[in-house]
């Protein structure tokens, strides 16, 4: 899909646009990266690795140049959204724990650990507009804003607060999802498959560009997973070899099971896995995956390349779709507003017809009294609207209250008064 966003020159506060860099004029410089993954997959370690990687890169650059000031790139901006984490190996710029005391919340509301995390996240989300304000201000100074999410994956991915945070971010700036997978724990075809199904569900829920990050490659190389994704027959072969797909394979021996089963207890499971693998084949085509080690920093350069590609995908595919949805919603809201107004006017006319002469007189008096105090630009929702912008509604109001035309108020001033003339 062609990009509808214009690639323009950077604004005054932005760095110079380099070849290949995608900095459409209206988009912030930063890409926000939402780090999601199963409990223990290494989200926090990965996030801290990003911080260390940046610091080490900067040290390397300045050593090469011999002058620390020449190539300094701004450090990523970090947000911790896990209220229950006790220790972090990175220093977040914004930390949910500064706002919410998770332990006290659990005690006061008699909540379990997951209920506590969910409630903490919900409370934090009520203030997320303030956080977003901070992030938006930083988004023209940094390249990456990284959000570390709670350990229990479903608390973020399937909660209303998770959706609100994700949508708010994706509307404000290019946003991508980094889905962390514990590679050594994915050696069993069934575990691999369930992880991929989960990833697939998150991708379709958020509709954001997605990066699969096979973590802990210092313990287990992720090549086997890449092959399973690239070649359906290789996955089938691994399934056949393992018999019981819940047992890990030994990638050094062509996918044979570490502990081979000798019955056919896996047959049903295998055929289920086969069918799901076929379905997921399409999903794999839309994925970019990298292997990293959060302890050795191996693969981090590949990760940042993948982020660059994902940003481009956001600009080309996600943003135009988002703009279309926003426009569609605004049009629908406008249409609904007008049809409700028309309906109300119709009801009023009908009621008027049914009223007795005395009632009608009383209502006319009440309406006249209302007109004296009514600012004709008042739309009824607490907002002063610009009549030039919304001429139809203004016309409708004049239909409704024909006496509210140019008249003189009790104090002799012109009526309706212009906005700004109203005595406060
Ligand atoms: N060898 C190795 N261990 C890792 C790597 N990344 C994380 N770990 C270890 O995996 C364990 C879990 O890592 P965390 O970063 O706490 O995982 P998490 O996903 O943030 O955990 P929760 O938020 O509690 O779900 C820790 O013992 C880490 O040291 C890695 O790349 N290599």
TrEMBL record:
Subcellular location: Cytoplasm; Nucleus
Start-end of Basic and acidic residues biased regions: 329-350
InterPro entries: Gpn, Gpn1/Npa3/XAB1, P-loop_NTPase
Region of interest: Disordered: 1-24, 243-263, 329-387, 403-424
Gene3D superfamilies tied to this protein: P-loop containing nucleotide triphosphate hydrolases (3.40.50.300)
Record keyword Cell division present: no
Coiled-coil regions, chain positions: none
EC number, UniProt record: 3.6.5.-
GO molecular function, one term: GTP binding
GO CC terms: cytoplasm; nucleus
CDD domains, alphabetized: GPN1 (cd17870)
Alphabetized SUPFAM superfamilies for the sequence: P-loop containing nucleoside triphosphate hydrolases (SSF52540)
Primary location group: cytoplasm
Keyword flag Transport: no
Assigned keywords, A-Z: Cytoplasm, GTP-binding, Hydrolase, Nucleotide-binding, Phosphoprotein
Family from the record: Belongs to the GPN-loop GTPase family.
Subunit: Binds to RNA polymerase II.
Functional summary from the UniProt entry: Small GTPase required for proper nuclear import of RNA polymerase II (RNAPII). May act at an RNAP assembly step prior to nuclear import.
Protein name per Swiss-Prot or TrEMBL: GPN-loop GTPase
Species assigned in the record: Meira miltonrushii
Lineage, top ranks: Eukaryota, Fungi, Dikarya, Basidiomycota, Ustilaginomycotina
């Amino acid at each position: 899909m062609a990009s509808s966003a214009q690639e323009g020159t950077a604004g005054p506060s932005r760095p110079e646009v380099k070849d290949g860099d995608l900095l459409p004029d209206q988009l912030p410089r930063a890409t926000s990266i939402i780090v999601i993954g199963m409990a223990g997959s290494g989200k926090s370690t990965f996030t801290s690795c990003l911080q260390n990687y940046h610091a080490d890169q900067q040290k390397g650059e300045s050593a090469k140049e011999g002058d620390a000031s020449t190539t300094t790139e701004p450090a990523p901006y970090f947000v911790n959204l896990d209220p229950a984490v006790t220790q972090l190996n990175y220093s977040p710029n914004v930390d949910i724990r500064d706002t919410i005391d998770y332990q006290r919340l659990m005690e006061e509301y008699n909540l379990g650990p997951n209920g506590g995390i969910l409630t903490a996240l919900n409370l934090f989300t009520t203030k997320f507009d303030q956080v977003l304000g901070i992030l938006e201000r930083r988004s023209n100074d940094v390249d990456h804003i990284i959000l570390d999410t709670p350990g229990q994956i479903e608390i973020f991915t399937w909660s209303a607060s998770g959706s609100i945070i994700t949508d708010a971010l994706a509307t404000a700036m290019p946003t991508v999802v980094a889905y962390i997978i514990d590679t050594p724990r994915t050696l069993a075809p069934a575990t691999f498959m369930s992880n991929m199904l989960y990833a697939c569900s998150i991708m379709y829920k958020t509709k954001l560009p997605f990066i699969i990050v096979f973590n802990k490659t210092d313990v287990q190389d992720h090549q086997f997973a890449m092959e399973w994704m690239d070649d359906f027959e290789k996955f089938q072969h691994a399934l056949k070899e393992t018999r019981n797909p819940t047992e890990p394979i030994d990638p050094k021996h062509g996918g044979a099971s570490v502990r081979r089963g000798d019955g056919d207890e896996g047959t049903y499971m295998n055929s289920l896995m086969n069918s799901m693998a076929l379905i997921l084949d399409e999903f794999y085509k839309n994925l970019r995956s990298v292997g990293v080690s959060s302890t050795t920093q191996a693969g981090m350069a590949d990760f940042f390349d993948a982020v660059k590609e994902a940003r481009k995908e956001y600009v080309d595919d996600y943003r135009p779709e988002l703009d279309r949805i926003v426009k569609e919603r605004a049009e629908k809201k406008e249409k609904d507003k007008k049809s409700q107004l028309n309906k109300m006017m119709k009801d009023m006319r009908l009621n008027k017809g049914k009223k007795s002469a005395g009632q009608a007189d009383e209502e006319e008096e009440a309406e006249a009294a209302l007109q004296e105090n009514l600012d004709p630009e008042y739309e009824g929702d607490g907002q002063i609207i610009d009549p030039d912008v919304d001429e139809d509604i203004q016309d409708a109001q004049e239909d409704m209250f024909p006496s509210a035309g140019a008249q003189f108020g009790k104090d002799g001033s012109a009526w309706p008064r212009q906005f700004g003339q109203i005595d406060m």
